[in-house]
């Protein structure tokens, strides 16, 4: 190394590639390199390579230093490549190629899984192929390689469901039911597999330890065991495994006895006579008390038919049920199917029959949907948003309907004062929410007060619908895992969830300076991208508030 020849030999380049030379990087922030679209850059590179080959014998350290000096010029080459890509890369070609890959992969996956619900016909693929062949712009070699090798890479990796079904209607993100963070992953993590195994062991015992089951369910229930777990936690099924099947048969038969006795005979003539009698009584009341408000007239008109036992048949406001059912999750095609809406109508009708103190109240229709979706998952695999429930056997549909009815009834038994006359339960909870927020975030509370925003104006819906109008359905299902694990989760723990949910948006709330802006924000909170992670953080904060205030209510009373 001391001799001049040794130094010269040390810096001699034995390979054509040197540190600092431009190498194409592929990834989320770098578009695929297209040799056809970047011909100028290729020519420049080819010239530099030919020059380097001719000057290969030049081995001085100064020459080496000049070649590798660009290694420290961070960002210059990247900016140039990105600028060229923005100018020359044809978006239509990229999207067309990606769509074709997804469509071909979808077909292969469907054939492999023998999914009869989704089929991409050969005629559709031929038409797509013809459209692709008519493209004036030649596909890039990288895109062609993606078509060939991408399918091999995707064979063992399932795409998200909403991407693997291009032939179906596109479901908005807010309406997707599949969990974003865990349930939709192609492979379960080791922790998820361990939790699923613990659930299965716990449920397989002769007598399920409900306290232990609640402990495991608080942080979320695996989709595979969620139906049976919800039935146990709601009190619909007994802890004893031997009694479960007989209980299911008895409760399902009891529900359909209600259907036959009340729903199927709702249009009989003697029931119509009772209805006409109620109308006459309402008319007489209005003549006697014309000064009474319209609202009171309406409420008494509802209560008058309840005075006779036979009028219980007519108590449900069937017209209101018919109006509300199509509004139930309108973005999800599942709930727009006629067979599903008929199931919901029967469930709500029978519930109103059996609960004359409240009857049907707007918002109860939303509370059926989580149970219905979870129990549908018990019989199918894959997505449920577009699933045609009429393809299920009649017996299965009847089981789903009866189970949904009884579990919803168990839920509403604990919060029925939310739906009785004047809804006193909701008013108490909204008042408690106001006092709680004033203690945990006085700045937000004062800002709402200064803008003349009443808590009842936005929190009424939070209590009436259990945040179902504020969160995607997938988040509601995850939230209810914890609600059913908490003592009085729907009636008590929900208060702390609402408080944590409101404070979660303190930055956005404080930025709004007037009543109109605050109301628009609070009624359209941006939660469409939420998944399990966001709900877990919300629940953790809610539990912290409950731990601090639940056993010491004077903490939040001034």
Account of the 3D structure:
This protein is mostly helical. The protein has 25 helices and no strands. The protein has helices at residues 4-10, 39-54, 61-67, 76-88, 91-113, 122-133, 141-154, 190-204, 210-217, 226-233, 241-263, 269-288, 294-303, 318-324, 338-354, 364-377, 394-413, 424-440, 442-450, 455-464, 473-483, 489-504, 506-511, 515-523, 532-549. Helix 22 crosses helix 25. The protein is globular. About 24% of the residues have low confidence.
Task: Note the main attributes of this structure.
558 residues; 0% strand
Number of helices: 25
Radius of gyration: 32 Å
Care to count the β-strands? Answer: 0
How is the biggest beta sheet arranged? none
Estimate the strand proportion.
under 5%
In terms of quaternary structure, the protein is single chain
Are there runs of 5+ residues with pLDDT below 50, and where? 4-8, 20-35, 44-58, 70-76, 85-89, 115-122, 131-169, 180-186, 274-278, 292-316
Query: SSE order, as H and E?
Result: HHHHHHHHHHHHHHHHHHHHHHHHH
| Helix proportion | 55-70%
Mean pLDDT: 74
Head-to-tail CA distance between termini: 84 Å
Ordered list of secondary-structure elements with their pairings:
Layout: H1 4-10, H2 39-54, H3 61-67, H4 76-88, H5 91-113, H6 122-133, H7 141-154, H8 190-204, H9 210-217, H10 226-233, H11 241-263, H12 269-288, H13 294-303, H14 318-324, H15 338-354, H16 364-377, H17 394-413, H18 424-440, H19 442-450, H20 455-464, H21 473-483, H22 489-504, H23 506-511, H24 515-523, H25 532-549
Helix pairs in contact: 5-6, 5-7, 11-15, 11-17, 15-17, 16-17, 16-21, 18-19, 18-20, 18-22, 21-25, 22-25
